[in-house]
Specification:
About 25% of the residues lie in helices and about 25% in strands. By secondary structure, it is of the alpha/beta class. The protein has a nine-stranded mixed β-sheet. The structure holds S-adenosylmethionine.
Length: about 230
């Protein structure tokens, strides 16, 4: 199986199955994780017991049911996930895909690695990297995914640029994200919440055909955006 192609300029160090990017002096490029790496073992529990019911007013079971439906016919594709987290892609992606995941949190990636080892993707690679600076060559992926994370990307233009660059010319981006007009709870959802119309405009401006998926789950919007480049 071919490895996913990395840019010639990128230097990588692999530790326990996770790829870390090096700078010109061969020093690790350090990313400040979204949730302290020390607390990453609590992440799945926090999502299930607090974030889904209290912030999103959504069902986590329904979330994975929806994602499974969206991805059920996607097989033998080369897929990138922006913000892999603890590896919940195993709950909805078919095994016969080639998977690359990036995340700024090495703690969460270590948990993802354990799940992926047991699951058995055709192949998988994990990178401790920022969504705005990914190590892959242009036109590499058929599909890109981002779940519950778009709101955390501080440099959204940088993310768009990497998404556009790394997808093949008619690649498809699938996303789930909380949107303010569906939010019922008073609890704060961190990051930048984009309205449906704003998302549509942002994607259309970058030559994507934006299409919301017909699923309702609390504050969450599920959409896909097909690239035309
Ligand atoms: C709410 S979690 C979602 C994780 C996973 N996609 C899921 O559905 O469970 C947000 C994730 O975004 C990651 N993240 C935040 N900013 C990032 C960035 N600039 N680049 C890459 N990952 C980032 C965090 O480390 C965390 O894993």
């Amino acid at each position: 199986m071919d490895k996913i192609k990395i840019k010639d300029s990128v230097k990588i160090s692999n530790k326990n199955g996770i790829n870390y990017l090096l700078d010109n002096n061969n020093k690790l490029i350090k990313n400040k994780p979204w949730i302290g790496d020390l607390f990453s073992f609590l992440y799945d529990r926090i999502m299930e017991k607090s974030v889904f019911p209290k912030k999103f007013n959504a069902s986590i079971e329904e979330h994975y049911k929806i994602l499974k439906k969206i991805f059920e016919d996607i097989s033998d594709k080369t897929i990138i996930e922006f913000a892999t987290g603890t590896g919940d892609a195993i709950k909805f992606l078919n095994k016969n895909n080639i998977y690359a995941g990036v995340d700024i949190s090495s703690g969460l990636l270590r948990l993802a690695k354990k799940k992926f080892d047991l699951y058995g993707f055709t192949s998988f690679e994990l990178y401790n990297a920022d969504a705005t600076e990914i190590p892959f060559q242009d036109n590499t992926f058929d599909i890109a995914i981002c779940n519950l994370s778009l709101n955390f990307f501080k440099n959204i233009e940088g993310f768009f640029s990497e998404l556009h660059r790394s997808l093949k010319p008619s690649g498809i981006f699938y996303c789930s994200v909380p949107i303010p007009e569906r939010k019922k709870s008073k609890a704060t959802i961190h990051g930048s919440l984009y309205k449906l119309d704003d998302l549509k405009k942002m994607f259309e401006n970058k030559n994507f055909r934006f299409e919301p998926c017909p699923y309702e789950n609390g504050a969450l919007l599920y959409f896909k955006a097909k690239l035309n480049k």
